[in-house]
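Onboarding guide, step 5: your first structure request.
Type a short instruction followed by the sequence, for example:

Predict the 3D structure of this protein.
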Amino acid sequence: MIRSATLPLTLSEPQIPDHNRLRLFSGSANTPLAQEVARYLGIDLGPMVRKRFADGELYIQIQESIRGCDVYLIQPTCQPVNDHLMELLIMIDACRRASARQITAVIPYYGYARADRKTAGRESITAKLVANLITEAGANRILAMDLHSAQIQGYFDIPFDHVYGSPVILDYLASKQLPDIVVVSPDVGGVARARAFAKKLNDAPLAIIDKRRQAHNVAEVMNVIGDVKGKTAVLVDDMIDTGGTITEGAQLLRREGARQVYACATHAVFSPPAIERLSSGVLEEVIVTNTIPLAADKHFPQLTVLTVANLLGEAIWRIHEDSSVSSMFR
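The system replies with structure tokens like these:
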């Protein structure tokens, strides 16, 4: 069940968008989220034909005039990543050829974000390749949420607005009134994210899990830097994929004396065997957002899904009105 959270943001008063200029379309990756965003903006999703030919090729046609319009295309590039990425590129190309004034690709989850640098010889920096593809397809602006690494913004030579899912998670945690919180980064690379999260959580103390990664999707937890004994530990990450890092970290925190362990992440990738690991009982609660849709078989008792639709809708409205997006998070 998706829960709405009251955003601790300074949102603009509800206004009636310029229906003659603003257009919102959704790809197939996360239509329910796009519908929520449309409701926030007070408009309908634009009509579009989407079908697949016998040979697997995708066909998309925009079914209303968008000439001179500001078009926003909502499409997370989640699993199956290649299909959803190609669909986004075709949507952008269709809008460009339909003479849209500005095309903004709204990407709640940016696939291939972890391939952001070379760690060995003869590797592709796929995050940069995806940026090139989206730009060459005709996008004029990007709106994305919680990139795996902030440097990806620099891969684009077009305006890029980066928003965060942490406000809705922080608001939800505040409503629970958890005692003796310590915010924990599951690895050294996530320290900046965890530190910012802790600061907004009434300057909660920070702990770090030191680990050695031996292979892709395999992590060996080593030790905890910081005091977690008798405290409520809140693990914070941008995404949960196979759940190995989070669950191993939670087990270590339990051994170090943490009273309860919560896991928070914006993106619920949940590749196998994530569900088995996350529902094993080591975590009190797993808190994620709906940037990626979750099928019924990926739900489990400890899971809480918060919606980021209002946050994305507000960002879209501010972009459309040429007002500040960053001020939403001050």
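Each response can be followed by summary notes, for example: The chain has eight helices and 15 strands.
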